[in-house]
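Late entry, nicotinamide-adenine-dinucleotide complex.
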Amino acid sequence: MVQRILDYVNGSWTDAGASDFLNVWNPASGAAIGSVAMTPREAVAQAVDAGFAAYLDWRRTPAGTRIQPLFKLKALLEAHLDELARIITDECGKTFKESVAEMQRGIENIEVASGMPALIQGYNNEDIARGIDEHMFRQPLGVVTAITPFNFPGMIPLWFLPYAVATGNCFILKPSERVPMTSARLFELIDQAGFPRGVIQLVNGGKDTVDALLDHPLVKAVSFVGSTPVAKYIYSRATANGKRAQCQGGAKNPVVILPDADMDMTTRIVADSAFGCAGQRCLAASVAITVGEARNIFTEQIADAAASRKVGYGLDSATEMGPVITKDSKARIEGIIAGAQQSGVNVLVDGRQKTVSGYEEGNWVFPTILQDVPPESVPATTEIFGPVLSMMHAASVEQAIALVNARAFGNMACIFTSSGAAARQFRYEANAGNVGINIGVAAPMAFFPFSGWNESFFGDLHAQSHHGVEFYTQTKVVVERWPQEWSRQF
Ligand code: NAD
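Prediction complete; structure with ligand written out below:
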């Protein structure tokens, strides 16, 4: 059955007067499962106005009261975890286990933001000058928005929403039009959590809907997660319009494997990083750099792990990897593999032209390994966003770090070793904001900022934790003196 996906504006569900609707596809079966409204500019303005009206009272609501519906939302999400995970798998393709894990990572942000009465505290100095006190307060901004990508439809909205509303802002989500069904269910639960009308809203759509949010003067801050070209566009348009912006972009994540690493563990972890979520993670390992004697053993083991990974529909319990998101994605990924092959790269494990029985219409690309990829080539420098691991080799740790630091992106870099000295050198010198040591997906938990660098991030304050609190508040400093003290001063 094809489900019609609506907006949630000022506490009600609406088709936003949209004349344009887009199909939502199950990437494993190839079937249309939903149809989503493309919210026009006028309807976006109505949502922003409703958000602003709600903000006038919400900002005066004590933080301790503002977090009560967040506790309720956490309980509702936990009670509906499996159901939400099934929706994620159906529209996004990842395995059920991966979908559960992403929801849990999202819920952790609700837990952190629920500490807002303490997190939002300012600071002060009594007698900063004789008889004069100075205080810093944090105040909310107004209406804020988040524009999110397809690959974590449950988790990424929760990188922003809990912090935004707990700090006293009103929040509008614009999810990816390719996976709007998870947000639709999330908002049915938000509706039950007890937030006042207009505090949290959902508008669906694509570029035009985003542009309407970026241009509206009452939208004060924009959070974005997605590809680097769109991150750059959104950052420049939002900031040119005087808004705060935090824009997390794409990635090309290298992992370095030293000969002293535990090879079995390393192979397992790197395979999970490269092929988990079909390589559609911004923290997926996409380049493996072996050092010295690690080359032969790691190559042999990772090739076995790639070839034996069980690919299929994410709700089948034996499945270890699902499909890629669209037919266009599949064609683009296969094109990059073909181009590499034509330029002389050896396709050690080839995931093209494979299918899954019973799901012949799915967007299947099986795990693929490209061997001895030149550092300047397309597969070594371009975000493929599919289950393709490019292999390179270095003679020393220094040479490996130089290869890591030659990239334009800076989302993640990892090293596998049992040497503390090599690990420390890597941690210190790697030009990336999230670093893993014997970790394959160095995803900061909600208590830490998600710290992409370089072409992977545009802005100052990242998602999650204290960065979220700072991003969604403006500081106000009050300097005060009172008459009795005035007379004592002079
Ligand atoms: P995308 O950039 O195509 O879309 C992201 C969002 O931007 C969607 O909501 C989409 O509707 C909107 N959008 C797309 N084109 C637009 C345009 N021209 N103008 C305005 N809005 C536009 O990204 P995607 O394909 O959905 O997601 C995959 C990308 O996201 C990958 O590059 C991945 O690395 C990145 N990502 C990054 C992080 C991170 O934390 N750095 C996390 C997850 C995903």
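The chain has 18 helices and 23 strands. Will revisit in the morning.
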